[in-house]
Design brief:
The complex is a heterodimer of chains A (177) and B (451). Chain A is built from 5 helices and 4 strands. Chain A is α+β, with helices and mostly antiparallel strands and 177 residues long. Chain A has 2 domains: 83 residues, 2-Layer Sandwich (Alpha-Beta Plaits); 67 residues, no CATH class. In chain A, strands 2-3-1-4 form a 4-stranded antiparallel sheet, covered by helices on one side. The longest helix of chain A is centred in the middle third of the chain and has 28 residues. Chain B has a single domain, classed as Formate dehydrogenase/DMSO reductase domain (Formate dehydrogenase/DMSO reductase fold, Up-down Bundle), CATH 1.20.1630. Helix content of chain B is 71%, strand content 0%. Chain B has 15 helices and no strands. In chain B, helix 4 runs antiparallel to helix 14 and helix 8 packs antiparallel against helix 9. Chain B is globular and about 70 Å long. Classes of the chains: A alpha+beta (177), B mainly alpha (451). Chains A and B meet through helix 1, strand 2, helix 3 and helix 4 of A and helix 1, helix 5, helix 7 and helix 15 of B.
Chain lengths: 177, 451
């Protein structure tokens, strides 16, 4: 084969077929597989063992803490640096500070979560070899795809092609760079 | 699972949903009505720009406000716009977390409505500043003058609350939109559309790994957005409570404001749902059941708002405070009694029709009742401000407030500021969530298959 091959992608008609195929491939020892679907499929994360990724939660918590304490520090500092006496009211007015602290906690938590998400999933990435694979555009319509990477230890161009067919794939396409 | 009626008709396929919604931006169906609406909203926007240009040149004196009524249209509309926006977040976030499938046909345009309404809401305190070009003084930056903003002032609460709410609404709306932008990108035939949607879809390809992380993030933001809504409108009510005027100190204020906001917002979503369903013939996506549920939620929110009215009056009398009681009497019988009774009538009389199933499922009646609710809440916010402010503690400082031409022109023009971005959204982006509706359809088909 002169053509370099990144992997093979099999097309399935339903979410259940894809889920079953992914489960089968996983139990048959394939490791570098990925699934593509027009909507999130319940149970797919379990099959691909993605369930225990709690990074987003921790990033969000870190953002929230950063926001609330960062803003509180700013409020304390500006009142200390430029004190404004209003009718003898306390300079450090905790209840009045709480509103803005709460809002900044939420703002930073959300910003951290979104930036964290994009970093983790590696987007934006406007081009990807999959986009030039015929029929892959249907992954955002009503088709479901199972991808086996060529770097998988069990990968073999011909055997894997047959294997994907045996899992019930309607078409199997090579993914080329 | 025969007990649950499906939200979407089962005789359509996943592909039907793609084409039904995806066709709207790519081959826009209602060109002429859209163009008429767009020209109208541009005209209103022009009126708004003219009004604020004159406002910036002459100052807030062109409005009817003066001591004692120094908060009028700008603040009353700030509360009103912000309230309209809240339903979008509640539909999207709260109902997502509660697993309410029916929200999937409504959340996208409800969120867009939120973003547009919050833009208008944020504009109100800014143009009320008097010297809006000093807006940046609200941010803590190391100024050469050595001064800092005053964080004990409710004005600071406003700017941070609105800024946070606007940012979070846009982010939540956008990351929910990304998978659908990818769908439209893959359907687009013309180069320009492919580029436009390609760039904004960020290269989304529907990988299971991406979905897993995306779903966690989306749900996390949803969980954060619900308390955000409550905090933002509570903050607005605390804005009143931090003044000394009678009529602004009832302890029910924060929930009363939040519920009133949600009430007007759900009514607004119902109005938009009816119009979009009719204009784009989306009867299979926004079904009668959606209208039915939306009407039920509006009814529930409306009745809770009514409880707020009752309790506010009770609270005034129970306080035994002569000024509080006088304000209640002014609301009932004073020269602004029309705003109180108008709010009661518009808010709660037509609303009772929604107890009937046939009314809930009738788009025209639902639209009219929702319009009445939005007008009622407009009057309520006016009533809360003006009836409290025009008579405070000393008869010597009693006064009146009459909106001027410029009050009205700024408000009516601002409807253009709301409608213009919303119409652009409807025209150029998938205004109903494609992938979330597919998710619902797939699940319902599976349940139907199991019997």
């Amino acid at each position: 084969m002169a053509e370099p091959l990144l992997g093979l992608i099999g097309e399935f008609g339903t979410a259940d077929a894809l889920l079953a195929a992914a489960r089968q491939a996983k139990s048959d020892g394939f490791q570098r597989i990925d699934a593509f679907s027009p909507y999130p499929i319940e149970g797919m994360a379990d099959v691909l063992a993605l369930k225990h990724d709690h990074r987003i939660g921790w990033i969000t918590i870190a953002g929230g803490l950063f926001g609330i304490f960062g803003m509180l520090a700013i409020q304390l500092f500006v009142n200390w640096d430029y004190p404004i006496e209003v009718g003898g009211r306390p300079l450090l007015a905790w209840p009045a500070f709480a509103v803005v602290d709460f809002e900044l906690m939420i703002l930073c938590a959300v910003l951290f979560a979104v930036v964290g998400m994009f970093v983790i999933i590696g987007l934006p990435r406007l081009h990807h070899p999959l986009f030039s694979t015929p029929r892959f555009g249907l992954a955002s319509d009503d088709r479901f795809f199972l991808y086996v990477d060529a770097r998988d230890p069990k990968f073999d161009a011909n055997a894997t092609r047959t294997y994907l067919g045996s899992l019930g794939a309607w078409t199997v396409q090579p993914v080329q760079p | 699972m025969a007990t649950r009626t499906p939200a979407l008709p089962l005789d359509q396929s996943l592909h039907d949903i793609t084409t039904d919604i995806g066709r709207i931006p790519l081959r826009f169906p209602a060109r002429i009505p859209w163009l008429i609406a767009f020209i109208l909203s541009l005209a209103l926007l022009t009126l708004f720009l003219a009004s604020i240009t004159y406002l910036f040149a002459r100052g807030v004196g062109i409005w009817g406000l003066n001591i004692p009524v120094n908060w009028a249209f700008a603040i009353h509309l700030y509360v009103w716009w912000l309230g309209l926006g809240h339903a979008g977040t509640l539909i999207s976030a709260m109902l997502l977390l509660m697993g309410q499938d029916w929200r999937n046909s409504l959340n996208r345009f409800a969120e867009a409505m939120t973003v547009c309404a919050v833009i208008c809401a944020g504009m109100e305190p800014i143009i009320h500043l008097g010297r809006p070009w000093f807006l940046y003084w609200m941010f803590p930056y190391p100024a050469t003058m050595g001064v800092w903003p005053q964080f004990r002032s409710p004005l600071e609460w406003d700017i941070w609350a609105v800024l946070t709410y606007l940012t979070v609404s846009i982010i939540f709306w956008y990351i929910g939109l990304v998978p659908d932008l990818a769908t439209v990108r893959d359907r687009a035939k013309k180069r320009g559309w492919q580029l436009f949607f390609g760039i904004f879809a960020l290269g989304w390809r529907g990988s299971a790994r991406h979905w897993a992380v995306w779903q966690k993030t989306y749900r996390t933001i949803a969980a954060i957005a619900v308390p955000l809504v409550v905090s933002v409108h509570s903050e607005v009510s605390l804005l009143f409570a931090s003044g000394q005027i009678p009529g602004w100190h009832s302890t029910i204020f924060p929930p009363y404001f939040v519920l009133g906001a949600a009430y007007s917002g759900f009514a607004m979503v119902a109005m938009i749902a009816v119009v979009m369903r009719h204009t784009f013939r989306l009867g299979d996506i926004v079904t009668e059941r959606h209208l039915d549920v939306l009407a039920k939620v509006t009814l529930a929110m409306g009745m809770m708002t009514a409880y707020g009215y009752v309790f506010e009056v009770f609270d005034g009398y129970y306080s035994g405070n002569a000024h509080e009681i006088a304000t209640i009497h002014d609301r009932f019988f004073g020269i602004y009694a029309w705003s109180f009774w108008g709010a009661v009538i518009f808010n709660f009389i037509p609303l009772q029709g929604l107890w009937l199933r046939s009314v809930r499922r009738n788009p025209v009646l639902l639209f009219l009742i929702a319009t009445s609710s939005v007008i009622g809440m407009w009057l309520e916010r006016y009533m809360i401000l003006v009836t409290s402010l025009y008579k405070d503690f000393l008869p010597s400082s009693f006064g009146h407030y009459t909106p001027t031409f410029w009050d009205w022109s700024t408000y009516i023009g601002m409807l253009g500021l709301f409608m213009t971005p919303f119409l652009l959204f409807v025209r150029y982006l998938p205004s109903i969530s494609i992938f979330e509706d597919k998710e619902v359809l797939a699940r319902e088909k599976e349940e139907a298959g199991r019997g």
